[in-house]
Amino acid sequence: MDHVNLGHSGLKVSRQCLGAMMFGTGENAPCGEDEARRVIDAFLDTGANFIDTANVYTGGQSEEVVGRAIAQKRHKVVLATKGRMPMGRGPNDSGLSRGHLTRALDDSLRRLGTDYVDLYQVHAWDPDTPIEETMATLDGFVRSGKVRYIGCSNFTGSQIVEAQWAAERQNGTKFTSLQPRYSLISRDIEGDVLPAAQRHGLGTMIYSPLGGGFLTGKYERDVPPPSDTRIGSRGGRYAEQALTEHNFEIVDEVRKVADELGSTPIAVSLAWVLSRRGVTSVIIGPKSLAQMQDNLPGFDLELSDEAISRLNAVSKR
């Protein structure tokens, strides 16, 4: 099992990160607690140690499920969660203010059944709160022992720079990680975000490496997407933006590379992301144990320079 440092820190994380967005206890949860426990146990049994969730996932149920599943092995897990999104209808029930983040962290710790998280991330930028207030609040979490490291998600390059500079001016704690969307069909972070993260010492935890499931090869030209898939269920403009000829050309090349290697489109897509400069860890978000097992070969597959060049060329805009 390959473990690497997360950014400019001493924290060792597996290149596989288990995303817990699908886990829950309610009837509408994509992955119920029993299956989620099987997924978590099997994931940790591979030697991986990195699990990512958020307070907003399945209305807080995800944190509860993860907390119960790792309770007896908490010290073996690098546990990450996030705060920022609405957790109520009040004017102070969302955002990156000191008040909301303090409540959000305490509530997350209660749901997770732990007295600290290894990585606490702000889920998105908040234009209504001064970044100095946010960074000072996060620094307080680290000094209190409730949080070991801090990170951000969905930040632009300039927002990363603003945050790191704010922390430096206050002699506070800087971000250690960034969680961005990145895949063969979504490469926009390469021009600005990834270079900014590298310059400022942030490791990256990539989400949606399969392009929302598109790169698995389960969608076909001129065929309506199944209603039980992400694209099919959302439809409308989301489907129009995903079901483009350019994206199908990418999938065609992914399939060709997979066939040549005796592998799968899933493995090839994950291996490509892992091959990219500046990528630390890649998040997989399975709904079942079978889905997780379908993802794991991608972390062992090594693509040739020729295969990477072909994939780069077809996916370039």
Largest sheet: 8 strands, parallel, barrel
Number of strands: 10
Shape: globular
What order do the helices and strands follow? EEEHEHEHEHEHEHEHHHHEHH
Instruction: Average the pLDDT over all residues and give the rounded result.
Output: 95
CATH topology: TIM Barrel
Structural overview:
The protein has a single domain (3-212, 265-303), classed as TIM Barrel. The chain has helices spanning 33-45, 61-69, 98-112, 131-144, 157-169, 193-199, 230-234, 236-242, 245-261, 265-275, 289-295, 305-315; strands at residues 3-5, 12-14, 16-19, 50-52, 78-83, 117-122, 147-153, 177-179, 203-206, 281-284. Strands 3-4-5-6-7-8-9-10 form an eight-stranded parallel β-barrel, surrounded by five helices. The chain starts with a strand and ends with a helix. With 317 residues, the chain is an alpha/beta fold. The protein has twelve helices and ten strands.
